[in-house]
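Question (not urgent): is this output format expected?
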Amino acid sequence: MIPVYVINLARSPERRAWMMAELAKAGAKGSFVRAVDGRRFGARCDIATVRKPRAQRALSKAEAALTLSHRKTWRKFLASDADHAVILEDDVHLGSGFRDVLALDSKAIAFDAVKLETMFHKIWLSRRGRAAGERRLHRLGAEHLGSAAYLVSRAGARKMLAATRGFVHAVDYQLFGPHALGEGGLVVYQLVPAVAVQDNLLPDPKSRCGLGSTLHEEDRRRLVARARRGKPRGFHRLRREARRLAEQVVRWLRLAPTMHRRRIPWE
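Got this back:
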């Protein structure tokens, strides 16, 4: 059985209780990894002030802390004798087939990671998939952000440690962003249907359990400031839209022959 690691903040016991209940419901067990808390960083924290290349802002303390938490979990996994591990953040709903995923023969296909979650928007996937029990694995062709639930191999964990050493992007962008899947050389598959979804992304708001946010106040201020700035206007907006259109055309020409875009359901 593939081991499961759950990243959880010590100040969020309600999330730990939630994940214990979700794992029990799925007939699985997990090891809890104490997350690094960005609120405990000092004002002179070097990690949170590393500038992103060609970007306007640094990593926030919460983003840096989340990256450190995933790195801590990968190291714990690599210190074990397991060939693969499932990494979960502490705000996910697990589907009915989660235990079946843990019983899969993960050696049958070479990968660095398999995304187990869905964001419910269209993503680029290979047209042909491989059987994974009653589900299928499709090669991920372009970004599918989110780091709440994924299966990782030992080789993948080593690549992820190397990719996140510089703290230049949020952890989900480093793992499942366009650079990671292109120049970064990560081999990533998507489980279809997905078997996990974050609580705040559930399509039916009534099904959400309302887990409290762990965002640092710094992140809240950034989100408010971004909303106030609004969208660019005039020439700047035209230039941005032209660049975006050109990137979409190039991407389509590269991916369309072997891949297609689709939304990933979960169950």
